[in-house]
Design goal:
Shape: globular
Helix content: 25-40%
Oligomer: single chain
Distance between the termini: 25 Å
Strand order of the largest sheet: 1-2
Number of domains: 1
Order of helices and strands: HHEHEEEH
Length: 81
């Protein structure tokens, strides 16, 4: 992820969570579509908007195929930051 962020010149922080500490803290786990096969809950794709005080001001808890639209994210930024 770090290489991708550098390549694409992201001007925001990208966070990886290989040990699922953040996913556990925010309780964003669920059963994936193939739960019967893998027998494990996984981190659900989630998008958080965090203000400069470290407070979550907007969240979108998705699914394997459900993500917020860019319009929804931009609207949340305009409304909450």
């Amino acid at each position: 992820m770090k290489k991708l962020a550098e390549k694409e010149n992201y001007d925001f922080t990208v966070v990886a969570d290989p040990e699922a500490k953040i996913a556990n803290e925010f309780n964003v786990f669920g059963k994936p579509i193939d739960y019967d096969l893998i027998k494990s809950e996984l981190a659900i794709p989630s998008t958080f908007l965090i203000n400069s005080s470290g407070e979550i001001v907007w969240r979108y808890i998705g699914t394997k195929t459900d993500r917020p639209t860019m319009d929804a994210i931009i609207g949340a930024i305009e409304k909450n930051l």
